[in-house]
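During the no-cost extension, the postdoctoral fellow (Dr. R.K.) reprocessed legacy sequence entries with the updated structure-token encoder. One reprocessed record is reproduced below for audit purposes.
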Amino acid sequence: MEGRILNEKLPSLVAEIQKVSDDAESTFGNLSAEQINWKPAAESWSIGQCFDHVIKSNQAFEPELERLLTKDRKHTIWERYSPLTGFFGNFLLKSLKNDTKKYKAPTKDIIPPSEIPAGIIERFIEHQNELSARMKSVGHVDWKNAIVTSPFMRLMTYRLDIALEIGIEHEKRHIRQAKRVLETDGFPAG
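Re-encoded structure tokens follow.
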């Protein structure tokens, strides 16, 4: 069974990651450091901060994917018996697709610094390639039966297939946020 792909969503999720990368590169790839760090307001995030946050958020989930690669990985008691697994995943997925409500980052570890290096888009694309490779590495895992715990709120558990979809929707949400920054009056000209 090792090496056999058990999840039919893998090709479409990998394709979504590539679409997000292509969109980021074509939309933001030629921006200057000034443009990457420009904020519409003091309390708003810059384009660079949006991308830095996405990278940090995805990296926080890497230990969960690594755990899935070990043959002796066992679900925790909470992962096995939580009656909220489906609820949390579906609720979060739906809320990420809807941009009407703002959310605060659940932990300071994923809040970006105020100055972001100009190479953030290249770093994001490289990160996306690594993310695709990680997803492929767990392609042999039964994603519908593998339960993972949120690295941000230990009470929240998700099926792996939903967790990966959440990650991609989170990326799309912040790219939409970055595009709004790009379209704001006063954005510096190239």
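The chain has a mean pLDDT of 85. The first strand starts at residue 147 and ends at 149. The remaining legacy entries will be reprocessed before the final report is submitted.
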